[in-house]
Write a structure and sequence with these properties.
This protein is α+β, with helices and mostly antiparallel strands. Helices cover about 55% and strands about 10% of the residues. The protein binds glutathione (GSH).
Length: about 200
């Protein structure tokens, strides 16, 4: 097994999907939490975090890292079509979270942010989650968004719903398929152990 060092800030953010994949696969790695940015920016291959060192080779881009790990540890489904279905679900999750970032996270005025968050949760988030659920219903089976076993798409769904439910814990009340996927992810022994011990950070 290669020697992995995953570099990111002390948060879940864009690195958490890779941490979840590594946890689900029971892979040892060094979880480097960078606290001297921007002093170490020049160490990062494109000046951004996350990046992963694979036996010293530095690979940037959160989704390239996650997809590489998912392929390595058989979390992309059983063939190329499954892999494309998982990619489509991940991209739909990304669209949803990009909307959150642009419409809520970047708003600096506290009162405006509160209004933007309320609108996002009651409108954009619901539409985005409907899209994710529609794909999962079409591509997967009970507890899995693609095929009949765990993929990184399930882990991504867990991660984004965890983030959104921090703002509204009943957000998934009308999303039974997504709830089943979350339950299946949490019933994975390695993931359960990881979630129990992971540092609590706001993002
Ligand atoms: N497309 C890149 C975006 C990476 C990115 O925006 N990273 C941010 C943190 S989430 C960063 O490194 N910010 C600090 C900087 O650019 O100096 C990815 O998905 O990895």
């Amino acid at each position: 097994m290669p020697n992995y060092k995953l570099h990111y800030f002390n948060g879940r953010g864009r690195a958490e999907i890779s941490r979840l994949i590594l946890a689900a696969s029971g892979v040892n790695y060094e979880d480097v939490r960078v606290n001297d940015w921007p002093k170490t920016k020049s160490d990062a291959p494109v000046g951004q975090l996350p990046y992963i060192e694979i036996d010293g080779l530095k690979l940037p881009q959160s989704l390239s890292i996650a997809r590489y790990l998912a392929r390595e540890y058989n979390l992309v489904g059983k063939n190329n079509l499954d892999a494309a279905k998982a990619d489509a679900i991940v991209d739909t999750c990304i669209d949803l979270m990009t909307g959150f970032y642009q419409k809520v996270f970047l708003v600096t005025d506290i009162a405006e942010k509160e209004v933007a968050l309320k609108k996002f949760l009651s409108d954009d988030a619901i539409k985005g989650l409907e899209n994710v659920e529609k794909l999962a219903k079409q591509f997967g089976s009970k507890g899995f968004s693609v095929g009949k076993s765990l993929t990184w798409a399930d882990l991504f769904i867990h991660e984004i719903t965890y983030s959104l439910m921090n703002y509204q814990d009943n957000l998934l009340d009308n999303f039974q398929v997504l709830k089943q996927i979350r339950e299946a992810v949490e019933s994975n022994e390695n993931i359960a152990k990881y979630l129990k011990n992971r540092p609590v950070t706001p993002f």
